[in-house]
Description:
By secondary structure, the chain is of the alpha+beta class.
Amino acid sequence: NTVMAAQMTNAHRRFLQILMSNGITEGSEARKLHQRCCETDKVYYAHDKLDDFISTINSHLQPLFMQIRKGISEDDGRAHYAVAILAETELTKMASDYTEIELELFRKTMDLIIFSENGFASSTDILNLADQLKTKKMKKKEAEQVLKVFVEDKWLSEKNGEYTLHTRCIIEMEQYILSNYQDVARKCNICHSLAIQSQVCESCGIGMHLPCVRKYFRGQTEPRCPKCNEFWSCDTP
Length: 237
């Protein structure tokens, strides 16, 4: 029982174009954009139909191995949208924007972040990698510049010299990360999307995003793991 994909209109095309040029768009911005595109192109608009609007675009993107995906910011739990490329190959989308050596630094940074306890890597640790790159060695000064660009382009975000994956990166690279880091990459037990910054149950090993932890344990005096029911030993935020 295949439903024919709804027509793509200029409103859909405009929405997609702006989403792609933004890199990542916060939920309330996406809702405003939806309204603006529909009104500009005189297309039927209903405020609660953003998901349908996006799935129409996605049905047309499917043959191109692309998809608008929704993800949650690990900082504040707010929804964001980004256009993901579903190819499993090396970081396809980034490959056109960066040199081989920059990509290698990014991959190594990603390793540090994903293998870390808390989803962060310090700039010291990242800069120490710079002179061990296979492509060619990179001077610390150079590496600092490259990191800055990764932050500007919203692949990494940085707080007090600690780097983590930006929400955009998590949304767009979820497939890549889950298949390349099978043993360590975990999904949040609450919202089921990839969790980089997370708390982990000491008994059974499930992980939860901090905003999800906050919501789940709200008002509980004795927080217990949603899976194994053991006492939740992390300090809940």
